[in-house]
Amino acid sequence: MVDEALSAGAVARRLGVAVTTLRTWHQRYGLGPSEHIPGHHRRYTASDLARLEIMRRLTAEGVSPAEAARWARQAPEPMPNGSGTVAPARIHPTGRDGGGSIPVGRAGPAARGLARAAMRLDAAAISETIAHALAASGVVATWEGLLRPVLAGIGERHAATAGLIEVEHLMSRCVSEALAAASRANVPTGPARILLSCADEEQHTLPLEALAAALAEAGVSYRMLGARVPVAALVEAVNRTGPAAVVLWSHTRATADPTQLSALLAAPRRPLLVLAAGPGWRADTLPAGVVRPVDLAEAVSLSAAVRDSLDQSRRD
Ligand code: B12
């Protein structure tokens, strides 16, 4: 086994760093060789090398050594290769994140950490970061300060490189799960007066899921129809449940047919408020009477206000 594990010199050559740098990372950050056989120098295993690769890459990207070491220590173990020794297929010179990074603009360290976890396809770290932010800061702040910048960054990188589809899918799944957990933790009582739906053929559901979690947090009951709702089904749901407000999400021009909004306004049980939410809608094509929120916070406050006014009118 000793032969398959690596000496400090061999690791330094593989990573392109000095042996003294390895020694510093070992002494200061605990990222040292873990294989020890009496009578031999300590040797670096595959796991040690994988962690050091993360350390090298992140420090090269400008992350502070202490933060880089924190991420490196959290890295999952490499795939088993018989003995936990060096597994050449996994230790690829371009690193394990597919290269590059997700731009997050001026968002803070948590968003940068989330972007890195997304690049590593590290579902556990993604989920933990989101859950922590939701618990500490609530849904609206987590959406605006953490999730939106990373999602937009993934979209930006995808548009530039046509890559990152696997990152986008894993991230979407983790965001959905975290928002669903937040919604379940705060199930409001009372009738569901707000109906949430994506436009026909619209698959971008995350903003609506954020709205659902934010409404739950604010104690406002809702019904969520989810992705790709044909207009006839949407109108049927309105007629059967009589919501105070309908929020119809369109993310792209392709799904923003304004006749869906007109159908809501013409429904026998017309809602008090129809919100056209999302960047797909064009203000100049919206039917009169439809309101376009600017962001998540406004969508929450408009929904809460219309719920309150319906409840009030039923009491009077
Ligand atoms: C995740 C994602 C997906 C996931 C969605 C998973 C899910 N369950 O939602 C999947 C993989 C399914 C997907 C599919 C596709 N996607 Co996509 N996707 C994205 C991505 C990365 C994030 C989407 C998101 O949640 N954005 C949320 C925030 C970041 O968006 P925002 O525009 O800043 O939103 C703000 C405003 O809308 C405003 N706002 C106003 N009112 C309200 C109300 C509320 C309640 C809220 C919350 C906010 C709000 O505030 C928002 C911020 O909070 C975007 C990139 C992006 N920039 O959005 C691409 C993106 C939207 N997708 C894109 C494309 C092209 C597609 C596909 C067509 C790809 C394909 N070829 O199949 C399909 C579309 C299928 C369909 N018919 O819907 C393009 C759209 C380009 C365009 N403008 O037409 C984008 C922009 C990526 C890109 N740069 O190319 N996608």
Automatic annotation (TrEMBL):
GO MF annotations, alphabetized: cobalamin binding; DNA binding; DNA-binding transcription factor activity; metal ion binding
The protein's name in its UniProt record: HTH-type transcriptional repressor CarH
Gene3D superfamilies with a match to the protein in the record: 1.10.1660.10, Cobalamin-binding domain, Methionine synthase domain
Keywords: DNA-binding
A Pfam family it matches: B12-binding_2
Domain of life: Bacteria
Positions of the B12-binding domain: 191-316
Domain HTH merR-type per the UniProt entry, residue ranges: 5-74
The UniProt record lists the keyword Lyase: no
